[in-house]
Each structure stands twice: as C-alpha cells, then as structure tokens.
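Quick start: read one record
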Amino acid sequence: MLETRFEAVVRATGKGDEVTVRPGGVVGSVSVGGVPIVVRPKIPIDRVLFMTAYAADPFRWEENWSAIAGVDDLEDGMAALFVAACRRTLQRGLLRSYRTIDADLPMVKGRVRWNVQARRRAPLPVASRFQVHDDDITENRILREALAVLRHSRLTDPALAAGVDRLWRSLEHVRPLRDPLPDLDTITWTRQNEHYRQVLGLARVVLENSMVDLAGGTVGTVGFTLRLHDIFERFVRTALREAVALSETEFPNSWRGRGLSLAESGQVPLVPDLGVRVGGQWRFVGDVKYKRDAGPSHEADLYQLLAYATATGLPEATLVYAQGPHTPITHDVRHSGERLHLRHLDLLVPPLAVLRQVGGIARESVRV
C-alpha cells in the first residue's frame, strides 16, 4: 500500500524485519486490514487545503478559510471545506433545470419516438420523449456521489459528520451516478449553474482522491489521499492565470495533445505545466515542481525547462519550486542565450502572502 498508493520507496535494512520508508509526493490516510497508515505533508495541512480551495475557485476561497484554518487532519479538513462550500452554494436551494426523459407510457406525453413506436405491433405502450423540470440533474447527482464518499470517511469530528449527513439527506433523492467524473467533464458552465463551479471543483478532488474497497460486494471508503504535485501545480497555474487576467483558452490547464514538440517532425512531444499563447504567439512557458530546489542535484529540471523554451521559441522560461532559496536565481544558457528563471514559493507564510509571491512571478515573467 505504501508503494502503490503513497508512491513510497520501501527498502529492507537487513536487520530482521526492519525496513526504511522514503515517502513520495502523496499524503493522506488509508486503513489496511484495520491498521491505519497516515502520511503527513511537511507543510501545514491547512496550506494544502488552501491551495485546493483556491484552485477550485480563486474568487471565493477566503469564504471557506475559516472552516479549514488550523485544521490538522486531511480528511476532516477536506470534508469541512466541501461542507462549507455546499452550504453556501445551496443556500438558495438545489439547482433545477430541464432534462429529457425517454419512457414507455400508457398515453401520449410530449413527442412520440416514431423510430421506436413504428416497430411495435401493439399501440400501447407509447414510446414517448418529454421534458421535466426538477433537481435530478447532473450537477446535483455529482454532489450526491461526493457526499456518499464523505459519509464513509474516517471523520473524527462528530459535528462535521453530522453536517455531512444533513447535506446527504437533502440530496439522497437524486439518482446515483455510476461514474461521476466523466459526467463532470461534460458540464457546460452558464449563468444558471455558475454558482456550482467551486463546489463541483471540490467534488472532483474528493472523487479523484478517495479510495474505495470493493471486497465482499460492499462499497466503503477506506482512505483519502492527495498528490501534492497535482495540488501545487493546479494552484500555481490558477494563481498565475488570475494575476494576469487571462482566460483558460489563453492559459489552459493542459498542453497535452496541442502540438508542442521539440523536433520538427513532431516526434518529441512536450507538455509544459505552464504555458500562455495569445493570438497564436507563445508569451510564457514554465514548469512546476513540488520539491525543494536542491541545486546541483536537479540539473534534469533545467534541461526540461530549456527544452520548453527552445520548442516555443521564447528567450526565457520559468521553473517554480515549492521550496528553496529566498533569492531568485537565473541561469543564462551558453551559446543559445535563453534565460532560465528559478523561483521558489514559501508555503509556510499566510495564504495572502503566498498569493503575493505568485503575483510577483507573474509580473516579471508572463509577458502579455
């Protein structure tokens, strides 16, 4: 479990059954045969939750900060963050919308599905298609699945567990979803459902990072983990995007499959963590590493960054580390002239101070 779920390296010491465990970039808690395994981050847990909340909604993250500030348990903190977002989102009631239903009825309702009805010998039932206006829609069904996960989590705060149960009772009537994450990707944001954006972003985090035990035909969450690199990368990208007021088209979440390649033949594809392209022209490229900048041991990070600068034709590229020297570092590449900027975020300071650091990186590096 340590190796597969937490990406840890386990090695025998040669002293009986003693082993050494070197953690990977995954934190959280999992129960294995009744034995709890807990891996904690080096930074405070509320900072991890802050980055999660900001990436989900950079405009309203402060409204949830009071619910997670100082929290010391990842599962409790994630549940508190989700419950606070749900309560605020559902203050005006559950979102309702039109949905189309295909059904066989004893009378005509809506439109007759003639491609089905024409193949039937009997006139009844009638293959009908009609619309209803209710709250049994995709957005609410995804919230239901996230709450179902949290109801089976290892929550240590009774008041928090009670809050999850109250929200569950308001949503348990909607139909379950077998695989909610693909449905979440199909949602189109409009003025009607925009206020659900943050809570569904948090629902994605809950659903992506929960561990489910299918043994014995029962479904119960036995763990919750977060990959810190993913959390840090999403946070940095979102904060940079907001600092320079760019859209997701100009500063997308992923450059995978968008044709960036180191070779003219296109056979060496590159996928930078950060990239801005405006009017068909590259304006910024960079990478994110959730680790300490240890200097000489991280030459491969610089080679990767140089490849991004070369492929985009930019004179500079920026690498953002989660920890390192407080002073910025810039390397001038021999012969080619590219400049590689290394910047380091201090995640131990208060959230607003972290955002100011990211704003400084945006002002010096993102040329729009």
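The chain has eleven helices and 14 strands.
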